[in-house]
């Protein structure tokens, strides 16, 4: 769906709620939420751990097609001393549409969607149509049309939607955002980020959730690991398959959709060698998977231009040996931060042509959220970030407040994937859709200004 069709469709639907993408489906404040979880695999269980820690949340429904994962989720709820959902589970017979029965039963304030990527859009759309708020794991959709459909549904129903991008809550990321807000870097000029993470052992997990990654070179329908679904994307697609970890913090720093927006995108990819090489090293050239042709380039680089003149570079690098890094760089007229070398330089405060250790600055500008909630978040997944992202969704939903990572953020960050695929395939620069239809000019930043969420 192109922008003109989208606008026309929204108008003919008579969606008066479209004037406010944050209009709550139920205009009432709640002290306790009844939530469901769709997807109780390894990621779902990490999020469930944070939900059952809370006194203001009751997990009343679980949905997954794998009985073993449902069993583990139920055991987590029981161990936390919380009441088990009744009926306990949906989908344990392998019914991939069981989530619709869960939504149809009603009684839910919101759902967390933590399933394979291709299910995110239809599940979120179904939940919003049922007026059930959505906290969706990244990504928001697969195709560009998916993103327009998710956006159109949110605008039509007014149902709250938040993308659960946890890296926006990383401690150093929020401290740097605090520095940006206070003008330490001057006027921003350039930003970088990415998903630079050796996932070869994840993409070829043997499928046994009780054994460590890296024990096999299999992928496909067997087992419960991410290799069951994730590796197929590397076989069939060439683009930035996972942009939100990198673009989320960059977009917040650059006030995207809040006085700024993405305007153009151009992407390119390297040759694909890493996954094939991994299989040969692990199992030999005669292994069946050594004959698989992987489409995903080992290093995908995406360049994005912004309306206010900033440039952003993203890199997707998951098929080669490398230590983990998201490669953040925030650079302005007065200095820059680079996370790879853990350094900051501020002109007039740092020694000329010398780096300061980042901690000298990050400790001083530690964000109010971490000052207030750091101890509570200790022990949560991804260094505490998972607590923060769940807390943000829960607190905003309870208060009927705007989601800090909202529908416009969700679709624009995630749409980088299909746009980068198109740019690579067609060898050209693309205009970036204005999902806000011009509202970006007047919307005000809400993320990172205070310690609410």
What does it look like?
The chain is α/β, with parallel strands linked by helices and 453 residues long. It has 2 domains: 3-165, Rossmann fold (3-Layer(aba) Sandwich), CATH 3.40.50.720; 168-369 and 404-441, Dihydrodipicolinate Reductase, domain 2. The chain contains 15 helices and 15 strands. The strands form 2 sheets. Strands 14-13-12-11-7-10-9-8-15 form a 9-stranded mixed sheet. It has a 6-stranded parallel sheet with strand order 3-2-1-4-5-6, with helices on both faces. Helix 6 (144-157) packs antiparallel against helix 15.
CATH hierarchy: architecture of the largest domain: 2-Layer Sandwich
Fill in the CATH topology of the largest domain.
Dihydrodipicolinate Reductase, domain 2
Order of helices and strands: HEHEHEHEHEHEHEHHHEHEEEEEEHHHHE
- Strand tally, please? 15
CATH superfamily of the largest domain: Dihydrodipicolinate Reductase, domain 2
Share in β-strands: 15-25%
Main beta sheet: 9 strands, mixed
Low-confidence stretches: 1-26
Radius of gyration: 22 Å
Quickly count the domains.
Answer: 2
Features:
single chain; 453 residues; alpha/beta; Rossmann fold; Dihydrodipicolinate Reductase, domain 2; 2 domains; 9-stranded mixed sheet; 6-stranded parallel sheet; globular
């Amino acid at each position: 769906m192109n922008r003109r069709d989208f606008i026309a469709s929204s108008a003919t639907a008579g969606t008066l709620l479209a004037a406010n993408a944050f209009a709550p489906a139920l205009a009432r404040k709640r002290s306790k939420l009844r939530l469901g979880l769709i997807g109780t695999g390894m990621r779902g269980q990490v999020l469930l751990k944070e939900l059952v820690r809370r006194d203001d949340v009751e997990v009343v429904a679980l949905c997954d097609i794998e009985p073993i994962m449902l069993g583990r989720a139920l055991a987590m709820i029981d161990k936390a001393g919380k009441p088990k959902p009744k009926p306990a589970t949906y989908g344990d017979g392998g019914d991939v549409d069981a989530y619709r029965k869960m939504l149809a039963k009603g009684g839910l304030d919101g759902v967390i969607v933590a399933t394979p990527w291709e299910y995110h859009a239809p599940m979120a759309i179904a939940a919003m149509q049922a007026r059930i708020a959505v906290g969706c794991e990244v990504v928001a959709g697969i195709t560009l049309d998916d993103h327009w459909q998710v956006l159109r549904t949110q605008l039509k129903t007014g149902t709250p939607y938040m993308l659960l991008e946890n890296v926006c809550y990383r401690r150093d990321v929020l401290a740097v955002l605090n520095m940006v807000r206070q003008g330490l870097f001057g006027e921003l000029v350039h930003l970088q980020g990415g998903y630079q993470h050796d996932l070869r052992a994840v993409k070829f997990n043997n499928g046994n959730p009780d054994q460590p990654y890296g024990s096999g070179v299999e992928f496909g329908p067997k087992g419960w690991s991410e290799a069951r679904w994730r590796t197929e994307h590397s076989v069939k697609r060439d683009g930035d398959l996972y942009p939100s970890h990198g673009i989320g913090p960059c977009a917040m720093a650059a006030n995207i959709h809040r006085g700024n927006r993405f305007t153009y995108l151009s992407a390119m990819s390297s040759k694909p060698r890493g996954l094939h090489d991994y299989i040969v090293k692990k199992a030999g050239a005669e292994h069946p998977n050594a004959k698989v042709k992987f489409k995903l380039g080992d290093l995908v680089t995406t360049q994005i231009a912004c309306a206010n003149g900033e440039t952003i570079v993203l890199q997707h690098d998951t098929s080669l040996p490398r230590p983990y890094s998201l490669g953040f760089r925030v650079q302005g007229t007065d200095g820059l931060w680079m996370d790879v070398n853990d350094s900051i330089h501020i002109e007039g405060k740092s020694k000329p042509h010398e780096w300061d250790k980042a901690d000298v600055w990050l400790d001083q500008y530690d964000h109010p959220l971490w000052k207030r909630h750091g101890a509570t978040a200790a022990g949560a997944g991804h260094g505490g970030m998972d607590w923060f992202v769940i807390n943000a969704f829960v607190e905003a939903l309870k208060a009927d407040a705007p989601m800090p990572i909202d529908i416009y953020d969700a679709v624009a960050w995630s749409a980088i994937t299909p746009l980068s695929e198109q740019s690579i395939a067609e060898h050209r620069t693309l205009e970036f859709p204005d999902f806000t239809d011009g509202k970006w000019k007047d919307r005000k930043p809400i993320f990172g200004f205070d310690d609410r969420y």
